[in-house]
Amino acid sequence: MGFATHLGPWLLGTVKETTGTTAGTIRNTGATHSIQVRPTLYAETTAQTLLAALPAGALIQSITYLITTAYTTTAPTFAFFVNGTAINSATAPAGVAAGTTGRGGFVLGTSNPALVANVGANDALVSFTQANGGGGTGAGILEISYIVRNSDGTIVPASA
Q1: Which residue has the higher pLDDT, 142 or 16?
Q2: Considering only CA atoms, which of 28, 58, 43, 34 is closest in space to residue 125?
Q3: At the top level of CATH, which class does the domain 33-147 belong to?
Q4: In a 3-state reduction of DSSP, which class is residue 114?
Q5: pTM above threshold 0.85
Q6: Cβ burial, residue 119 (10 Å; 0-12/13-18/19+)
Q7: What are the residue ranges spanned by the domains of the chain?
Q8: Read out DSSP for 52-110?
């Protein structure tokens, strides 16, 4: 089984606090990133379908779409929302030609960049809408990558 759960960010590295100016004495810890995935189909065009539930304070790194079955004529257009507020303009995944399979990404933060940098002090629901440009087939997997942080958006205790 490849799943684990924990509260708060995992800090990785050997030096948690800076105590000098040379390597080995300067803080080198950092937070790990996590992903959630969700399969989608061509016909899934209902308003604001749930993509993921993110923990409070999370920083969204990216959303990508792996098209596994080519959309008949054009790639789908997605808009993403954090708790109902848009975080991008509706666009097709960049880097995937119409009628092909492959992975493409989205530019996030064009609307409400603060929600991409920190989803807020409470857990957040990330949802999407999908519009299709024609045809009748297509499927893929949406992947959201994020950094788990404290609910205030920090990755270290306030007392550190």
Answers
A1: 142
A2: 58
A3: mainly beta
A4: helix
A5: no
A6: buried
A7: 33-147
A8: EEE-TT-EEEEEEEEEEE--SSS--EEEEEETTEE-S--BPPBT--TT--EEEE----S
